[in-house]
Specification:
Blueprint (H helix, E strand, L loop, with lengths): L7 H8 L4 E2 L4 E9 L9 E6 L4 E3 L16 H11 L3 E7 H7 E3 L6 H4 L3 H5 L8 H9 L3 E4 L2 H12 L6 H15 L7 H9 L3 H6 L15 E13 L2 E2 L6 E3 L5 E6 L22 H19 L2
Antiparallel strand pairs: 1-9, 2-3, 2-8, 3-6, 4-5, 5-8, 7-8, 10-11
């Protein structure tokens, strides 16, 4: 969020007598990277990943199932926090990144924001999309190398600690790669990516064809350091069914209404703690309508 989206009106309303709820609930992303070309201060970017990247903790151990890219953000966050370090890694191939990395932000998706069917169809072409390639070339969190020893060395240089052991990481990758050739694999991530490719749209532009990460033909190898991004509070102002803000005693605060996520429904009541971001739109529209009708009725 831009720096000016600071939630200050929550404090203003609280000081006027409104009641805040669900203060402890926050919306975090686990696939955050530093923006090499920020629009505002501390402008982070989230990777919207496909299912194929190998997700490792800070020491190079594979995250347990079902904590795969694009699956359970809250479960992944809880696991990361238990490791004692707040960064993780994606290890993948060029063949994976060219299909499976989409970046958050309208400026990172000019084909979609420009409503260009031709440019969207261009995603089926070989090679990473332009914004992704720019991060590969300039991003502080990206390491690109042909050979695993060099990749591991630069991963450790990036963090300033020798947390990744080359031999151990090679065993993790090779164990995953062996399952690519096994039609009856019990590796849940391999099963998941095969399932994703059963949908034609994903097979064409979203999920890379299964392959060995260490296959030189799929290279170079890529490691991406992932940081935890804090997006927003899931709490907000307590409201009644007319979207009137309630005071501590449970009575409406005269003349004050709240609509949208500030009304405290996101992650707090309507959608639950594991809410999906796209589902918030309905609550925003509904609470906005309720607030408008209630305010109109109040003024006659």
């Amino acid at each position: 969020m831009p720096a000016h989206v600071d939630g200050a009106m929550l404090g203003v309303t609280e000081s006027a007598g409104g009641r805040l709820i669900n203060r402890d609930r926050m919306w975090h992303y686990t696939e955050g990277i530093e923006n090499w070309n920020p629009i505002w201060a501390r402008h982070g970017i989230r990777i919207l990943p496909g299912p194929s990247s190998l997700w490792l903790d800070a020491t190079g151990r594979r995250l347990p199932g079902p904590l795969f890219p694009g699956f359970d953000t809250l479960g992944t966050l809880e696991h990361i926090m238990r490791t004692g370090r707040d960064h993780t890694w994606f290890v993948l191939s060029r063949k994976i990144i060219e299909k499976e990395f989409t970046l958050s932000g309208s400026e990172q998706n000019p084909d979609l924001t420009g409503k260009s069917v031709r440019d969207v169809l261009g995603r089926v072409k070989p090679g990473p999309p332009g914004p992704v390639q720019a991060f590969m070339d300039n991003g502080a969190d990206f390491v690109v190398e042909r050979e695993l020893p060099a990749l591991v060395r630069r991963m450790n240089e990036l963090t300033g600690e020798r947390l990744i052991d080359e031999a151990a990481l090679r065993r993790e990758i090779e164990a995953r790669d062996r399952e690519i050739d096994n039609s009856f694999t019990k590796d849940l991530q391999i099963t998941a990516l095969r399932g994703a490719r059963s949908y034609l749209g994903d097979r064409l532009i979203r999920v890379a064809s299964p392959h060995r990460i260490l296959d030189p033909a799929a290279g170079p190898l890529i490691a991406v350091r992932l940081n935890v991004l804090t997006r927003k509070t899931l709490g907000g102002l307590e409201t009644d069914l007319s979207s009137r803000v309630l005071a501590e005693g449970g009575k409406p605060l005269p003349g004050v209404y709240a609509a949208g996520e500030v009304a405290g429904f996101g992650g707090g009541g309507v959608h639950g703690y594991r809410s999906l971001e796209g589902t918030f739109l309905g609550g925003c529209l509904f609470s906005g309508r309720a607030a408008g009708r209630s305010a109109a009725e109040a003024v006659g």
